[in-house]
Amino acid sequence: MRRLQKLAVATALAGSVFFGMQTLAYAQAGNVLDAEIGSQIDGAAANPAALSTMVANLVQTNPTLAAAIAKRATQSNPAAAAQIAQAMAQAAPQQAAVVAAAITEIAPQAAAQVAAAAASGAPQEAATIAVAVAARAPASAPQIAASTTRAAPQSALQITAAVSAANAQAAGQIAAQVAVAAAQSGSSFNAGTIAATAAAASRTSAAAVISSVAAATGNSLSTIASQASRGAGLAAQAAASSNSIVQSGLNATAQASTQSGSNSTNQQTATVTTTPETIVQPPVVEENPDPSIASPT
User: Fold this and answer.
1) Contact 155/241 with Cβ under 8 angstroms?
2) Which one-letter DSSP state was computed for residue 58?
3) Pick from 84, 93, 104: which is nearest to 128 by CA?
4) DSSP, residue by residue, 21-46
5) Which portions of the chain are predicted below pLDDT 50?
6) According to the model, what pLDDT value does residue 31 have?
7) C-alpha span between 210 and 228 (Å, rounded)
8) Distances from the Cα of 61 to the Cαs of 16, 19, 29, 53, in angstroms?
9) Which residues 6+ apart lie within 8 Å of 274 measured at CB?
């Protein structure tokens, strides 16, 4: 029985530590927040800077709860959605797309801003972030693609290809808005190459996409068509890589949807205080009632 109690204590202590608090909460469930973590987030909600610092620390020590943390923080202060996204993406870039999708689920009206903020925190994940957020707010796909391009201008082709592949019906609008954003943010990719990329990735009419881009950028059709022809090789490469990016983005959205920002109702919580007399109360472990199985000593 003593060995079983020791094992229970060790199990209770296996969890995630919140940095900087005297009371450290450990989450035992995979898809919900520990009640203490939820309370800590709520307590910082009134101060966006403090809230952002808190969730950045939390996601570093609880990466598997990234979506739940992001949702709870956004529920606590919806106006800080973009700030939360940037802080969490910067702290845990590998979770940036999950975080952005989770926040967009709570604040869909801020989708473009959330995508841009997350991409600025993790620019190497910009295209995946754009796909994940657009999956939550498909009507805003062109704006999302443009905002992530402004945050990560050298990823303009990957963003265009991935978002266009996932939202083929809006390829012309996506290319048009990305072309404008790329020009404004100093991207090295011209409008025609962006048009060619959107057409190739979405498998839609190149002429229609070129027309949309020309109208948005104020260039002539012949100029955009010429640029598209010269950039066909780059466009093909970006389109070829878009499938894996789209899949990663959709996986991130699916992962975000499985987590809740609400507290668990049936979850045990182990609490450790920083007082000299630290006491950890282990969960009750029943001995095997079968007398034929010897109890450990």
Assistant:
1) no
2) H
3) 93
4) -SSEEE--SSSSB-HHHHHHHHHTTT
5) 1-29, 264-297
6) 67
7) 8
8) 6, 8, 14, 13
9) 22, 23
Residue with tokens 């620019």, as numbered in its chain? 123
DSSP per-residue codes, 144-156: HHHHHHHHSGGGH
Give which of 169, 167, 145 is closest to 158, Cα–Cα.
145
Structure token pair of residue 33: 């927040």
Beta-carbon contacts of residue 242 (< 8 Å; ≥ 6 apart): 158, 161, 162, 164, 165, 201
Q: Which tokens in the block code for residue 65?
A: 């709860």
- Is 68:33 a contact under the CB 8 Å cutoff? yes
State which amino acid sits at residue 11.
T
Residue 241 C-alpha from the chain's centroid:
20
Q: What 3-state class would DSSP assign to 270?
A: strand
Task: Please give the Cα distance from 155 to 103 (Å, whole number).
Answer: 22
pTM: 0.78
